[in-house]
Write a structure and sequence with these properties.
5-stranded mixed β-sheet; 1 helix
Length: 142
């Protein structure tokens, strides 16, 4: 029973894209779930439904504004070109970057390299926490 629960949670949370479903009574087949990808080619405000494990490909020097935080939501922004991109909290949320709480509505700034990425997790009603990044993202101010 515990293994089934772990498998179901992994699928729901998007922690796996391919699992073999067998509940101890034989192999049943392969389940697949692909990570949704969103392409951003302009300044964009995401919706809560776009922060459920999605990867947002940022194609230039754009600001991606996060929606009001929903606890447990997660989204990753990734640069496809060598341009600085920004991840911005909405007016009532903060971002914790490398253990430091930025002001409400502040943004993070990527270093400007293709492949830079940053993952935000909605950890509390106060806002977002950066739980992973490639490249040295910094406080981008308001």
């Amino acid at each position: 029973m515990f293994k089934r629960l772990i498998l179901i949670l992994a699928i729901i949370l998007g922690l796996t894209t391919s699992v073999y479903a067998g509940w101890g009574d034989g192999w049943r087949g392969q389940l697949t779930g692909l990570t949704p990808v969103i392409n951003v080619a302009a300044n964009t405000t995401l919706t809560a439904n776009q922060c459920l494990g999605q990867i947002v490909l940022v194609t230039g020097n754009y600001t991606v504004t996060l929606p009001p935080v929903v606890i447990g939501s997660m989204v990753t922004l990734r640069a496809t070109t060598a341009a600085v991109f920004y991840g911005k909290a909405n007016a009532n949320d903060r971002i914790i970057l490398s253990g430091v709480a930025l002001d409400d509505a502040d943004k993070t700034a990527s270093p400007g390299n293709a492949g830079d990425q940053i993952t935000y997790w909605g950890d509390s009603a106060a806002g977002w926490t950066v739980v992973g990044m490639i490249g040295g993202h910094t406080d981008g101010g308001v």
